[in-house]
Design brief:
mainly alpha
């Protein structure tokens, strides 16, 4: 075999490898496993994974800048760990880079009715997340991983909310006759630049920007006066990007994990979610029990009214928005206009709702209290309880997939 043939074979291998990673969707179960592992690594490095907190911080700053809020936000979005994970070269940027690398970034503008539903869904999600102390990620996934009973309370609420919304959708299809769908893709004009061919190169530049940003943060080290760890923040850039890529390549969506059992019966997302929670809770429990991370982290003071009722409202709003909090992020990064509108209304309504809750001690106390399960039933039995609940959800949704009992 001559050198030119060897080079040709090597290039073919690289192209096939690239196609497998970026042109084919990854299995959902793999997404659940990677999300669980990345969640534990992120917690060990700095903090648990969350979405709505970072979005709310940017809205808070915007409202303060235009005079809607009078009090100065105590955080800087460019330094806040919540913001770094979600917005600043975080989850959205990772999903955006992934969509470019896979040639899937396309502006999709759905019919007006869908845009209105996106605004309604985002608003409901923002209200529900404020009540529950977090979205489907922080209020359910990370809270459950942190052994907070509020996480399980929100899981119950999300299931009920998704069930109620499915029943509404059936009514809507029967009585409201509007155009639906994600919108038609515009055909490129003859002779126009084929942006699909350029997208992978732009995706590569987006990834380069992530590592450049992480290097810049790392270069500042630790601030001697404030003690702020810039290196830790740089690591969160990488973690947030990893979440974005994993979510996009696996098309992972908590919405489908709660809704699909009541519509198509498909349980793939539910199984993926179960794997993610089980892996994450094992890691979180080990980190907390060993004293490497504080026990009270992400134990939300929202059990049971805030987590349960907020979960119902959030779960009812997810299908309207076309995605959960994390799903709305990566779909927005992919160019979906409906999800972008839902994303904006999600942040605005969450900021306003959180401000209302924080303004009244009575409302805050009504949301509930902190319940850290190991204080009541030990670490061992807390982990067993959560794994059993998730395993039962795994079994029930898989059984329903075969029987169609809940459809």
């Amino acid at each position: 075999m001559n050198k030119s043939t060897e080079t040709s074979v090597f290039i073919t291998i690289l192209k096939n490898g690239y196609a497998r990673v970026f042109y084919r969707n990854w299995p959902v179960w793999l997404g659940g496993l990677l999300i669980g592992i990345t969640s534990v690594i992120t917690f060990a490095w700095a903090r648990p994974w969350g979405v709505v907190g970072g979005l709310r911080e940017w809205v808070d700053w915007l409202f303060y800048s235009v005079g809607i809020y009078s009090s100065h936000p105590y955080y800087n979005p460019l330094l806040s760990t919540s913001s770094i994970l979600t917005l600043t070269f975080g989850l959205i940027w990772g999903a955006f880079a992934s969509s470019l690398l896979s040639k899937q970034f396309t502006i999709k503008t759905p019919p007006p009715f869908e845009l209105v539903k996106g605004a309604i869904g985002g608003t409901l999600m923002g209200i529900g997340a404020a009540m529950a102390g977090g979205c489907n990620v922080g209020g359910f996934f990370s809270a459950t991983s942190a052994l907070s009973l509020s996480g399980l309370g929100m899981m119950a609420g999300l299931s009920i909310g998704a069930f109620l919304e499915v029943r509404y959708i059936y009514w809507e299809l029967e009585h409201l006759h509007f155009r639906r769908g994600e919108g038609r893709l515009k055909r490129p004009k003859e002779g126009a630049t084929d942006w699909k061919k350029i997208q992978p190169w732009l995706g590569g530049l987006a990834m380069l920007a992530v590592f450049t940003g992480a290097y810049i943060y790392r270069s500042y080290g630790i601030d001697s006066s404030s003690g702020y760890n810039y290196t830790r923040t740089g690591g969160l850039l990488i973690s947030g990007t990893a979440f974005g890529i994993i979510l996009h390549r696996t098309r992972f969506a908590f919405l489908q994990a709660f809704r699909e059992p009541f519509t198509s019966g498909n349980a793939a997302q539910a199984r993926g979610m179960t794997i993610a929670v089980v892996v994450s809770v094992l890691g979180f429990a080990a980190l907390k029990a060993s004293g490497l991370r504080p026990e009270g982290v992400y134990v939300m003071p929202t059990f049971w009214v805030g987590s349960f009722v907020g979960g119902i409202i959030f779960g009812f709003g997810m299908p309207f928005a076309g995605g959960c909090a994390s799903g709305t992020c990566w779909r927005t990064a992919e160019g979906n206009v409906k999800n972008l509108i839902a994303f904006v209304f999600f942040g605005v309504s969450n900021s306003l709702s959180q401000a209302l809750i924080d303004s009244s001690g009575r409302i805050s106390s009504l949301m509930g209290k902190k319940v850290f399960l190991p204080y009541y039933i030990s670490y061992h039995w807390s982990v067993v309880l959560i794994i059993v609940i998730m395993f039962l959800y795994y079994l029930v949704t898989s059984w329903n997939e075969k029987t169609g009992a809940f459809i």
